[in-house]
Design goal:
Elements: H1 2-17, H2 22-51, E1 59-63, E2 68-78, E3 84-89, H3 93-96, E4 100-104, E5 108-112, E6 118-122, E7 128-136, H4 146-150, H5 152-187, H6 193-213, E8 217-221, E9 227-231, E10 235-239, H7 246-262, E11 265-266, E12 271-272, H8 275-306, H9 311-323, H10 328-351, H11 366-390, H12 394-402, H13 407-436, H14 441-444, H15 471-480, H16 485-524
Antiparallel strand pairs: 1-2, 1-5, 2-3, 3-4, 6-7, 6-10, 7-8, 8-9, 11-12
Length: 526
Amino acid sequence: MMDTATRLARDMNRGAGRGEGAWPWLAAGGVALSLLMVVALLVLLAGRGLGQFWPASLERVTLDDGRVFAGEPVRQIETCDGHREWLYATANRDLDGQAWRWVEAGRIVSRETPEDLVRLERQRWGPFIGYVRAVQPSANSPLGQPAVESSAWRILQARLVRARALRERLATLRASTLAPLAEELAAAESPRPATLAAFDAAQQQAAKLRDALGGESLVLESADGRRLTVPLESVLDAWRPNAMGPLAKLGLWGQRVWAFLSEGPRAANTDGGVWPAIFGTVLMVILMSLVVTPFGVLAAVYLHEIAYQGRLTRLVRIAVRNLAGVPSIVYGVFGLGVFVYGIGGTLDQWLFSAQLPSPTFGTGGLLWASLTLALLTLPVVIVATEEGLARIPDHQREGALALGATRYETLTRVVLPMALPAMLTGMILAVARAAGEVAPLMLVGVVKLAPRLPLDGDFPFLHLDSKFMHLGYHVFNLGFQSGDIESALPLVYATALLLVTVIVVLNLTAIFLRHHLRARHRVLHR
């Protein structure tokens, strides 16, 4: 062992004497530091983002002045004068006007964790922390009797299961029947009687579902004894974290994570899920890839294989490389002026003049956002593809020509198959850049809230003129435009982690395809 260490130190000293030994170690240290920074970033995003879905314990806090409140302890800080303060998520915005509370640690007399403390998720006013006292059949009925109050939690669980089923049926009816019929009636000058009858029947069915969903109410009580009656239809979920075991909390954590991934946002994007943003991001990246890949590959093939290698070609290459460094907001301004106002406004005058002055394509949408990002990433694809073409040995082309192949056959059957990994490398780099861009999208189609997806079952199925949501813009909106930064901050981490995950999945898919094509090419050319 000592001989090995002595030999390693002697080799390092010899390399340092020649001026070479320190550089490999510095390079390895740089790589290790970069990996540590990436891992630390992912750990931070995962810890802060996924941790918010864990059903944390609730506390009933009594202060030195006799006041009582309930909440979830978030963090503790030390002030400038040496005192310690706790931040509690107290919820109950409709009762207190605020959902957060700072408390000096010295003022806390007792901290309890009663098992009957409940956390409710509501459509309006955000979460509620307190006690469930009764479930009333209607808002006008008297408060629950002792027998009803003692079994209120069990009754609430059964009612929530029924309410979720009714809510899903109502949402399906609106999306599949009411919305298409309403659009058909709005577009038709003289609606058909069958369409009117179907629309009236769907409205009646929706009214019955709303009546079944409404009617019942829930009597709640805060930790300081104030009572509140809320409609049961506004309650989305309820749980008692202090009475739950680790496995039950893990199951609830999984349900909340899935709800975050599969539902739409609510409460000004500070609650709910991000499914429209996931869908919009992936769909935009796919459309961008379908546009930028063929144009980038054709441009690279022309510059390297067809064009005369003179001064003009060199100037074009320099211009392409310089375009890769142009700020993305410049591309957004270009897309707004050329695609949206120029091409889109012309299309509206030619094809949709009846809808003017309301624009159809003369406003931001999925198509113009995809084209703008395709233009943004076009230099990346051109450079990567051209470098792949330059690595192909000349004897491959000369051998094909010597065997009687034409230049077109040489290009399509020899050169391009060998350059496929480089093309996919360019697409990977394009996807990685496009998926995280926000500035140009703010000008050409992304919005804060777009509950309707651009892809649905209505003809023409893919609505290229639709507004859409994007994960990157969702992070910007939560972080800088939210009125409740404490509630939005965990969602910022969770959405950022999801954006990184989406980019990694897209890149891994392209890398797998590149590896498969490279292995296939090696087999065919042995």
